[in-house]
Amino acid sequence: MKIAFHGAARTVTGSKHIITLKNGKKILLDCGLFQGMGPDTDALNRDFGFEPKDITYMILSHAHIDHSGLIPRLSKLGYRGKIYCTHATKDLTEILLMDSAEIQEDDVKFTNKRLAREGRGYLQPLYTIEDARRSLEQLRPIMYRQWFSIDDDIEVMFTDAGHIIGSAAVHVRITENGKTEQITFSGDIGRYRDVILKSPEEFPQADVIIMESTYGDSLHTDVAPADEELLKYIHETCVKKRGKLIIPAFSVGRTQELLFALNNAQLNGILPPVDIFVDSPLSMEATDVTRKHPECFNRTVQKMLEKDEDPFDFPGLRYIKSVSESKLLNFRKDPCVIISASGMAEAGRVKHHIANGIDEWKNTILLVGYCEPQSLGGRLMRGAKEVSIYGTKYEVKAEVGIIRSLSAHGDYEDLSQWLACQHPSDVKKLFLVHGEYEVQTHFRDWLHKKGYKDITIPERHYEVGI
C-alpha cells in the first residue's frame, strides 16, 4: 500500500491525498482547490500530479473549497466513480461548487479580455457551471459513525470533526492479503467547546494517520473571547469613529459564527444600533443549509432553539442579493458592518469593499480567520502599508484588526485532544498535512513528546509505502 500527497503538503490549501492498494485501486481523499498562492495558483490547480481517470473511489471530508473545489475538474478529466461524504457536506458542496464554477467562468472572461488586448492566447476555465452540475451527480451521502462497505476490501466510516456543518474525519479500513489496517484522515479538525457545533469525536485506533496542522503551534486562548472582540470593533469603528467595519468572512462556517455572536449580543441588549449587511449570496445559501442541519449543533444551541427558532437572524441584519445593492454600499456614508466573502479577501465582493474603504482612517478591516501569506488578507495581516487591488495600489489608512479566536481550526491543544483516543505506540506512521512547514515542524516536536515516533511532513507529490 502507498500514500501520495498532491496538495495541502507544506501549505494549507489544495487538499488531495491518494491511497493506492496493492491491487492498483486508488482512493482519493479530498480534491481541493489551491487558494491564495499568488501567480502559481492557476498552474497548481491545472496540474493534479495524477490521472483523474485512474482514481477508483473518492471520499470528501467536508465542503470547504480547499477540500472540494477541484471535484468538477476531476470529473471533467475522467473520474466517473462515486464521491462519498456526509449528508450536510453534500448539501453544502452543491452550492459551493456551483458558486465556484461561476467564479471560474467570470475570472477567465476577465483574464481573456486582458490577454486579447496584449495579443496573447486564450485561457479555458478550470471547469464550467455544467461541469460542476455533472460532478454533483456523483455525490453519495452516508451517515456518521457507521462502517460502510464501498468495496469488498474497503470500508469507510465518518466521525464528526467539529469544523463546519457536515465536516468529518475519514476512517478507511483496508483488507489486503488477509490483513486489515485503518488509515485515518482528519480532514480539518474543529474546536472543542465550539459555540455552535458538536466537539470532534473519538475514533477507533488507527494504524496510519494523516492529520491537519494549520494551527499546530498556536493557542487560540491567548486572546479575548471572540464575541467581546467583535463588539469592541463595532463600538470603536461604527459608534466612536462613525466608520465602516469590513469583515472578510468565509461563506461557510465563519459567517454563521459571526451571525450567531451578533444574535446573542442583540438578545442580551448589548449590540449597538448599527446596520449589519451580509453581502454574499453564497453566505445566505450556506446559512440556509446550516439551518437545515440542527443535528450538527451542540447541546447549548439545541436548547437555545427551543426559545429562538433562528439563531442566525436578528433586527438590523440585511442580506444583500444583487450586484447593484452591493455597489450602493460603497456610497453609503452612515456607519455599518459589512460581512462579505471571501475570507482571505482574494475574490468576491469583499475585495471591492476593501478597495473602497482601505484609504479612510475611520474604517476598519477585520480579519477573522487564517489567510494564506500571499493573499490580500495575509498581506494586510502582516502589516502591509500599501496593497494592490485589481491592479491599483492603495495606501492602507484604515485600521486592520485581527480576531484569531474565531478560527474554525483547532489549536495545538485541540489537535492533541483529538489524538488523545489513540495509543501512540500503535500508530505506525503519522503524516502532517494542511499547514505551513515551520508550524508543522513545531507541531511535530510537540507530537514526539506525546510519544508518536514516525512523523513525516510530506512535500507535494511525495509518495511513500506503508
Automatic annotation (TrEMBL):
Keyword DNA damage in record: no
Keyword set, alphabetical order: Hydrolase
Domain Metallo-beta-lactamase: 15-250
Protein's UniProt keywords contain Magnesium: no
One Pfam entry name: RMMBL
Domain Beta-Casp: 255-380
InterPro entries on file: Beta_Casp (IPR022712), MBL (IPR050698), Metallo-B-lactamas (IPR001279), RibonucZ/Hydroxyglut_hydro (IPR036866), RMMBL (IPR011108)
Entries under PANTHER family matching the protein: CLEAVAGE AND POLYADENYLATION SPECIFICITY FACTOR FAMILY MEMBER (PTHR11203), INTEGRATOR COMPLEX SUBUNIT 11 (PTHR11203:SF37)
Protein name (record): MBL fold metallo-hydrolase
Species annotation: Chitinophaga horti
